[in-house]
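2 proteins. here.
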Amino acid sequence: MKHSMMKRGFLALALAMVLVLTFSLSAQAAAKEGEDYMVLAKPIPNMDKTVIKVFSYDCPFCYKYDKSVTPEVVKIIQKDGIKYTVWHLKTKGKYGPQASELFAALITKDEKAKVGLFDDKSSFKKAKMAYYNAYHDKKERWGDGKDPAAFMKTGLDAAGISDAEFQKLLKEPATQARLKQWEGAREIAGIQGVPAFVVKGKYLIYTKSIKSINGMAATIKELMAK
């Protein structure tokens, strides 16, 4: 009898310790304003269930995230019905404006084909990775702003479309609306640079606080629930 009571007492104590440890770890993992994220002074409307990534083709960290981090994070958060979109920063890089126009047009093309941003069939992804590879790995500079035709050729060839098709896509209302929306990228990028991740149109994640793929996904989910 005494042995049974001791055993039950030990089990109760062990369970209590586990609960305390679990609560402690949970508390530590909670995102903190000012450390893990900040609240934007000007919220972005109509982004309630969406994560925005502000990026630039000439940003090395954007490239690193797109190679191994962002696609994995998106796989996790999409299970909770969270959407992911991108805004290209046209004010960074010699060919920022040209890149924005091409990327916006290619996303319109992908949306028509119902192809996701990380799908291997994505025209946007093909062009984006071609620019990343050319600029960061091969150190291509396309005349440092003096040869926009060469810059555009890299993206068009990767996406497998002609300039005529691009011009047609560029004129579409969806593309023009996207480019207008992307004008807001400069203000967001001005806070901590790029890449910049905005959750729910309200919360900017401090990239310095991102330690792992699962941790980033957890922060996004937590902020989305606010």
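next one coming up
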Amino acid sequence: MSHLTKILSDPTFWIAVGAVLQGVAAIIAYSALRYSVTTFTKTLAVSNYTELDRMYFDLLRTAVDKPHLINPQAVRNDEQQREYDTYAFMVWNVMESIYDRCHGDDELCETWYPVIDTEELRHGNWLDDPKNQTKFKHRFCRFIEKRYKKHKGHDHLVTT
């Protein structure tokens, strides 16, 4: 019996080969899982950005059609005031969605928090009204309050 035949006929050899192959399979499975999670995370980030972009674009398109909506100080008739109230509610709904989706994603925050800053300057007084704050999650309202330190005139943005 040759040396190779002796090794190949030894059950211990095959147990060792099986253990090594199980280890290799586990490493491959771990790598595949890690790749899948990374790909999923990137896809989710792109999806979040795309959805936020679409929602905000729809708001801006509405404002182009009715410019009085982006000027909270505009003189409005009763119908225009109802339109403004509805539009401001829509704006803050999108801002809350931005806040929810950005949580824990620094890249999304860097892109979308300036949008919240812009809309807070335009429509912050609307959200300051206690009857409007009840339409949003408490956590979101506290975020806005803390970030903008509600002083008269909305002149103090806190970025820390």
